[in-house]
Amino acid sequence: MGLVEDGRYQDEDQYDADADFADDEELEPAPAVAPVSPLPTRRPAPAAPVVKEVADLSRIVSVRPRSYNEARVIGENFRDGIPVIMNLSDMEDGEDKRLVDFAAGLIFGLKGNIERVSSKVFLLCPQNLVVGPEDKERIASGGFFNQS
C-alpha cells in the first residue's frame, strides 16, 4: 500500500522497542516531588477593642418627618455622629417604609445600628455610641419628646 517505508516494521515479531535507544544511554529516573515550603500564614492584625461611649441625651436629635424629603436632616445628623430619633407617626404608609429603607442603608453604610422604640419610632445610633437602657425607656415612654 505504500504506507510503510522500505519494509521496515512489516513483521511485528521482529520489532524491538529498545532498539531505538542506544545501550549506553541511560534513562534518568523521574524526579522526586520537589520539597514544598509552606506559605507564611497571614493572620489579620488583632482588631482594636471597640470602645463605645454612652450618648449624651442632650445631643440626641428628634425628627418627626412629614415627607420623605426630610430624610436629608436625618442623614446629616447621623453622619455627624449624632443619635437620631425618627418618629414616623405623621407619615403615610408608603412614605414611612421608604424612610425606614433609607435609614437602614444609612446604618449599613456608616456601621451604626437601628432599634425600634415603638411601632413608628426608631432610634438610629452611630457606630461608637450607645444609648443607655434608662434613656431608651424615656424615649419609649415619650418623656424625651416632651423635652424639645
Automatic annotation (TrEMBL):
Q: Name one GO cellular component term.
A: cytoplasm
Descriptive protein name: Cell division protein SepF
Listed under GO biological process in this entry are: division septum assembly; FtsZ-dependent cytokinesis
Describe, as the record does, how this protein assembles with itself and its partners. Homodimer. Interacts with FtsZ.
Which coarse location class applies to the principal site listed for this UniProt protein? cytoplasm
Signal peptide position in this chain?
none
The organism that produces this protein has a lineage beginning with: Bacteria, Bacillati, Actinomycetota, Actinomycetes, Propionibacteriales
- On the tree of life, the source organism's domain of life is Bacteria
Region Disordered: what ranges? 1-45
Please name the PANTHER family in this protein's record: CELL DIVISION PROTEIN SEPF
Task: Give compartment(s).
Answer: Cytoplasm
Q: What is this protein's function per UniProt?
A: Cell division protein that is part of the divisome complex and is recruited early to the Z-ring. Probably stimulates Z-ring formation, perhaps through the cross-linking of FtsZ protofilaments. Its function overlaps with FtsA.
Q: Which keywords belong to this entry? A: Cell cycle, Cell division, Cytoplasm, Septation
Family, per entry: Belongs to the SepF family.
Which species is this record about? Tessaracoccus flavus
